[in-house]
Amino acid sequence: MSIEALTLLFFGSLLFFLVLGLPLAFVLGGVSVVFLYFTWGFDSFYLVASQIWSTMGSFTLVAIPLFVFMAMILERTGVARDLYRMMHLWFGGVRGGLAIGTLVICAIFAAMVGISGAAVVAMGTIALPAMLERGYDKKMVLGVINTGGGWGVLIPPSILMILYALITGVSVGKMFAAGILPGIMLMILTSAYVLIRCYLQPHLAPDLPKEERGTWSEKFAALRSVVLPIMVVFMVLGSIIGGITTPTEAAAMGVLGALISAAVYRALNIELIKDASVRTFKLTGMIMWILFAAHAFSAAYQSMGAQPMIEGMIQSIPGGPWAVIIFMMLIVFLLGMVLDPVGIMLITLPVFTPIVSSMGFDPIWFGILFVINMEIGYMTPPFGFNLFYLKGVVPPGITMGDIYRSVIPFVLIQIVGIGCLMVFPEIATYLPDLLF
């Protein structure tokens, strides 16, 4: 069978079983193992085992359960509630101020937890009812929470960045540094959109009445709520940038900061530790199974000899290297609508990164483009994770259709952000070059 027909059959089988609703890890691993057996025989399974064994010996992987555990602890404390109270007092007098305050809280949460769902659930529980009660447009509110929640995979620490570094061999510290300015840029772009639209359409997000804005003494007293989040961020990012810890060791510092925060809020108890531990085991187990399956996929893909064919096809795209980058981003964007972001990374990066490096592009810069696209994948229908996290906490009157429609303008803003990074790559590369 020709390599073209084999490739079509391989990817067609993957798509077929995914459409049936089977779990990604078992589809990816199962189909790959079957193709390995029929192309190279039983001995090919040793290749999969050797790849998995080398990955499991990676010290970088230790950071994943630690960052997940940190997120599970912080999600149960009162940090998000107090942050929202502070933003309510300081931004409530501005038209659309609660929405902008929610975006700022999501960015702060992203700098603490490293995953996408924590901020979505927290703000969906706390900020969503408060904004709807005050007359905010539901699509505006849903879009803001969905977008801000996705920044958890871009603003460091980020589990997806750790996986990107693991797959491509780049520095985790450089990836973390590269995500800071793009994360701030996306927060500014999204906030500017909210401000402008609310100025042009005041009914979407009215400013709060004076009696709800608080006194200056209340505002300054509320600033105490940012002390613990800043402490956690400093313990994680400060220890990395200061050269005190590796990114993996910094994850343990983050767990310590989360436990201190829980103790300050008097939420630290056996039940909290038990619940956070069980959820961490479940999420980490899912990531590991996908990682195992991806190694089987990589072994099958390489054994078929399809990679040179795919590389040749991509490099023959008219328009030169930039057209290739845009084509890759389009593929990732479309895959993000139907596949798990971790699976997308493990399927596409072994193909994309050699081509990106051969064309002279910085793999750190490309990694930030890729992660932003993964962030978009979390918020785009039909299978974006954030959509379902949000559906789980919204009031009964809000439908899945409302959530789907709310993301459209915010997805376009993220795409504008990708365009800005392409035109000005220094936004992503300045801090890594400066610090490392």
UniProtKB/TrEMBL annotation:
Its main location: membrane. GO terms for molecular function: transmembrane transporter activity. Residues 11-427 form the TRAP C4-dicarboxylate transport system permease DctM subunit domain. Keywords: Cell inner membrane, Cell membrane, Membrane, Transmembrane, Transmembrane helix, Transport. The chain crosses the membrane at residues 7-40, 52-74, 144-167, 179-200, 221-244, 250-268, 280-302, 322-352, 364-383, 403-424. It is found in: Cell inner membrane. It is a multi-pass membrane protein. One of its GO terms (cellular component) is plasma membrane. InterPro entries: DctM (IPR010656), TRAP_DctM (IPR004681). The keyword Transmembrane helix applies. Pfam families: DctM. Part of the tripartite ATP-independent periplasmic (TRAP) transport system. The complex comprises the extracytoplasmic solute receptor protein and the two transmembrane proteins. Belongs to the TRAP transporter large permease family. This is TRAP transporter large permease protein.
